[in-house]
Predict the structure.
Amino acid sequence: MSGVAYVNGAYLPLARAGVSIEDRGFQFADAVYEVWGVRDGRLMDEAGHFARLWRSLKELRIAAPMAQTSLRAVLLETKRRNRVRDGIIYLQISRGAAPRDHGFPNPPVSPSVIVTAKSLDQRKITARMERGVSVITAPDNRWGRCDIKTVGLLPNVLARQTAMEAGAYDCWFVGTGGYVTEGSASNAWIVDKSGALRTAPLSANILHGVTRAAFIALARAHQMRVVEESFTVADVKEAREAFLTSASNAALPVISIDGTPIGDGKPGDIAARLRAAYERAA
Ligand code: PMP
């Protein structure tokens, strides 16, 4: 893949971009990340992603590598150098490189910062939105701090792979009590049989999706009823519609779960209306 990455102060061709094998992101997944959607050259929900980044760093006690204004300039420059109009910007910050030892390096080392940006094929995304996607479910076997956006994504990777091998797009995790927590890289939503929008409440068991927050605000602004209450797989099967939200997908309709069609088995109107409002608001 061609392209340019920012790595610790330098812009490098991807093929030559790299960090030390002693980087703690590589050794321990001791790193956080963020993803900004880019539409028409602009960052989506910019402030929300920055706020979550600072929170993730704070929770892991990784020092902020630079001020938000400087980091923003790096994101925009990486986007520019990769000529991204519609796509995503990826940022990863690790605790830095140090001889392998579980405890934090003492004295502390500088965090490693990498930024990449890539275009996403909008025709493919639109076609997927129009078709809708299928999900399967699997037990949520992740750790107890899914609210921190760390690069420790092995359960998510395995869940996605299982979904793909089953011919589905994604996997929705099912946690304690049989409640759906979230997708492997997205928040899960239904329009329940009473017509209310439902998504799991904020807790340590889900990532506090920035797109989730934007959609809650938009739905309320459009006089839609939103409840932050968990739902089961049975609730999904009885729902009028379902969708997932993420920075890269906005709102993607989910038309079946574990092989059972949801609603009439077609992408729902509410997800489409909200998505249109989201794009307009951006
Ligand atoms: N949950 C998980 C596990 C994710 O990886 C993501 C995407 N990063 C989301 C939810 C959605 O978050 P956002 O809307 O901020 O992209």
Q: What stands out?
A: Residues 125-281 form a domain with the D-amino Acid Aminotransferase; Chain A, domain 2 fold (CATH 3.20.10.10). The mean pLDDT is 97. The pocket of 4'-deoxy-4'-aminopyridoxal-5'-phosphate is lined by residues 35, 182, 185-187, 207, 209-212, 245-247 (CB under 6 Å). The chain has two domains: 4-120, 125-281.
